[in-house]
Amino acid sequence: MSKPKYDPKVYGGLKSQVNPDTGATYTNSEIAKLLDVDEASVRRGLSRPESGYSKHLVPSGVISQLRAELETPILLDSLELGAGAITADWHHPLTDYGLVNTFIEQARDLKATNYLIVAGDWFNVDSLSAFDFKQDEAGLGAEMLGSTATMEVLFKTFKRVIFSWGNHDARMHKALGYKVPFTKAMKMMFEDLDPKLLKRIQFTNLDHIIVDTPVRGKYLIAHPKTYNQVPLTSAIKLASKHLMHVLTGHSHHTALGYDRSGRYVVGELGGFFDIEQTQYLQRTTGFPNWTQGYGFLSKDGFLHMESEGWSSFIHKRSGR
After folding, report:
1. pLDDT digits (tens, 9 = 90+) for 1-18
2. What does each C-alpha distance from 101 to 19, 82, 154, 220, 304 come to in angstroms?
3. How many whole angstroms separate alpha carbon 60 and alpha carbon 50?
4. Lowest-confidence region among 91-95, 225-229, 245-249, 316-320
5. Band of the pLDDT at 314, cuts 50, 70, 90?
């Protein structure tokens, strides 16, 4: 037997009345019981303009003014752009510039020069560190000198640079009291770079970038805050969360493998740091030794990783 139907004005009228049993205005459930209808019918009736019911809502104008416009990750299309390089943890000026030169030559040989991703920690910013030790040779002046010289050389090879958040870079952001965005703080660090070259750097406030490839799918390139002494631990967790291949900086490891499903490639990018120039590494520590490294992505999305003593190329096998 179908429930009786009421004009929306009936629901609206009851909604403004006081229930004598409770001393408060009728609830939707109480109206439904009173009229022998289900609560959903009451809600639908009250939603009609002719019910005359004014909902207790935050004004839409206020909501629109308060709505935060969050930044979306930079999404690169390798099919459109072609092959490129993926790096992290340069730590200027404590950088192995010999390795940088080798990297540039290899990028040219592989024709992976359409873009260069810097996944955090281009700078070291030791002088603004919260830790007690400060290395005299690693002041901001030296960082900016090394950074500018390196970027000028890189732009002779790479068409564009994509620069994301790193915890060391963010020390400058913090020193400015977070009064400007991270991207603005980084542009200030590149004040000695030719403005025409600076325009070819795309900055993001986020700690990750996504590269979409036609054959292998999406790669998340990230500089996560989390650190684990066991290589690939963070990358594996991120692959399971985001359901895509993951390459990370920050760990100062170079490693390559798969997530638990065996579907997604995971890697740690190492870096261009020079451990022989980094004085605080002379202290006794149980952390693993740092290993240098970097990677390249082909136009189709196949990964080529380089590290000390090995080179690995994940390529399309015949029949796949």
Report:
1. 445 578 989 998 998 899
2. 81, 22, 9, 26, 18
3. 20
4. 316-320
5. low
- Amino acid code (one letter) for 97: Y
3-state helix/strand/coil string of the chain: CCCCCCCHHHHHHHHCCEECCCCEECCHHHHHHHHCCCHHHHHHHHHCHHHCCCCCCCCHHHHHHHCCCCCCCEEEEHHHHCCEEEECCCCECCECHHHHHHHHHHHHHHCCCCCEEECCCCECCHHHCCCCCCCHHHCHHHHHHHHHHHHHHHCCCCCCEEECCCCCCHHHHHHCCCCCCHHHHHHHHCCCCCHHHHCCEEECCCCEEEEEECCCEEEEEECCCCCCCCCCHHHHHHHHHHCCEEEECCCCCEEEEECCCCCCEEEEECCCECHHHCHHHHCCCCCCCCCCEEEEECCCCCEEEEECCEEEECCCCCCC
Question: What is the domain partition of the chain in residue ranges?
Answer: 8-64, 74-313
Please determine, looking at this structure, whether the domain spanning 74-313 carries the CATH number 3.60.21.10. yes
pTM of the model: 0.82
Residues present in the chain in total: 320
Percent of the chain clearing pLDDT 90 (strictly above): 68
* The residue type at 255: A
pLDDT, mean of residues 17-21? 90
